[in-house]
Amino acid sequence: MKTYWIIVAALVALSVAACAQELPAGAMEYSTAFERNIRAGQTLPGTDIKYIGKTEQGAQMSIGGQTAVKRALDSLTWHGDAAPGANVSLSLRVLTFDSQSLDAGGTAKVVLTSVKPQAVSPTSLPKDALTFKGIVNYDVPQGKTIPGTLITYEGKTPDGAKLGGIEGYAFRQEADSILWTGQLADKVFLGLDLRVVLFTDSALRTTGTATLYIVP
Q1: Per-residue pLDDT tens over the stretch 81-98
Q2: ∠ CA(201), CA(202), CA(207), 5° rounding?
Q3: pLDDT interval class at 128 (50, 70, 90)
Q4: Which helix (H) or strand (E) segment is 103 a member of?
């Protein structure tokens, strides 16, 4: 079961949408695979999903204050504000459970209603947070920013792709890395690990991983 879930999760890429037709200005949406271990007697951070413990009937849960008994592959769904300005929808399944803990996995959608990126030190990333990680692909027009950052694409130069809004060396060649650690809202943080795919006079294309941290 664990191997099966890893394969499924690997096929689900994290996507970001900030189109004016779908979301208001300043909002971002993330959709990604999600997996979490919940210790017996503990609650999934930011939610009201609580794993009480293993019984003869199955996994005893408390969801929204209501008692439920779940078996392997039964559903666990939740939606609400995990933090101010961070609405989360979870569509999970019970993977495994024992007397100590329960593993749940599935998909998650996160909508951030008011994103105001600012750079922070990597040491500022929270240790105990709801964490969402997946693949991102960005096509950034000249003069625009990489979503969720202050990094702008200034254009193609003889030294490579010129970036704005970063400290230090501003130029990147194809396959070079772009790293960013930032805070998107009061309790929402983002870590990006990107690579340059290609760049032209008009646009920069990148791919890599994004990790979203939400502190309940």
Answers
A1: 999 999 999 999 999 999
A2: 100
A3: confident
A4: strand 101-112
Query: What digits encode the pLDDT tens for the residues 129-158?
Result: 999 998 899 999 999 999 999 999 999 999
Q: CA-to-CA distance for 6 and 90, rounded, in angstroms?
A: 18
Q: Which of 84, 91, 93 is nearest to 115 (CA)?
A: 84
Tokens of 60: 């005893």
- Extents of the domains making up the chain: 2-112, 118-214
168-184 mean pLDDT: 97
Q: Would you say 126 and 212 are in contact if contact means Cβ atoms under 8 Å apart? A: no
Q: CB of 94 within 8 A of CB of 102?
A: yes
Torsion sign, CA atoms 58, 48, 132, 15: positive
In this predicted structure, the answer to whether residue 16 has a pLDDT above a threshold of 90 is no
Q: Are 190 and 172 in contact (CB under 8 A)?
A: no
Taking Cα atoms as reference points, which of 182, 175, 176, 185 lies closest to residue 211? 182
Tokens of 113: 């209603």
Which two three-digit tokens encode residue 58? 């199955």
User: Using CB atoms within 10 A of its CB, is residue 160 exposed (0-12), middle (13-18) or buried (19+)?
Assistant: middle
